[in-house]
Design a protein that fits this description.
The chain is mainly α and 278 residues long. It contains eight helices and six strands; from the N terminus they run αββββαααααβαβα. A two-stranded antiparallel sheet has the order 1-4. It has a two-stranded antiparallel ribbon with strand order 2-3. Strand 2 and strand 3 form a beta hairpin. The chain starts with 6 loop residues before the first helix and ends in a 14-residue tail after the last helix.
Length: 278
Amino acid sequence: MQNQPTYKDYFDEYRKSVSQIETDIRFWKTFLTMSIEKYKADNPVNTWISQSTFSLYNIPAKGKNMWLYSAKEISSIEIDDLTIHSNNFFVWVMNLCLIRMYNLVELLLFQAIRHKYFPTLADPIKGKKETARVIEQIKVYLKNNGQEVDTKNNKYIILFLRLNSTEIDNFYSDSVSPANWKTNWINFYEALSILRNVITHHGMLLSQSKRNEINSIAGDIFLHYFEQPINGKSTQILKPKDEQHFLNFINHVNDFAGNTIKFIAGQADLKFIGLHPA
């Protein structure tokens, strides 16, 4: 009989993916910075090195007579601006990594919940139908216990875990950091969900209303790790302050994920998933 996956198996997949994200961010940011400095030294005279414009084909309703239309504006990358363009490039790379981090955590939670509370169901990793069945059982449990099923920002998952574990309820109620921050782990996960929605559904554009929503939930975390606009009423691209702030934010995500699995599994520490005191 084939062995069933364990909590460690689930967490190993999470750990490998996150480690790759962290390695890529650290290495490529450093390598690109060094490469830009070398390129500037080898090419001391400023000039454009790349130009592009926006274009698309005008396609008739019928027929094949297409014609290319282009905007008049031309985007140029000059040698002196390489660092600015590099930083902008890493902004959207880090934002896309946030989506991946959120999805990794969500999958890990569903797998652990299925393993502990609904072992007869199939592993959510197999597909949407299997994930939907786990979600359905979580909702059924909440309804049977007189709880509201609030799917916004996956609040129902957090509520399910809190109701089934005193340790998780206590853990989630604690502050994310001892650095005088008020944000607890419940608020942190909700803020992470909002950020993911901004990136996925709003083109990474953070409006004043969304910014106010995040600040009301996890303002200290948000202010510490992400840039704030000079004009509070403006809409701007969501921007981690830099790669190190981003990686530190990811550390909180890892703390949330690893300790949640620990409490679901009823373990005293993290050795059961292959982690040991440093």
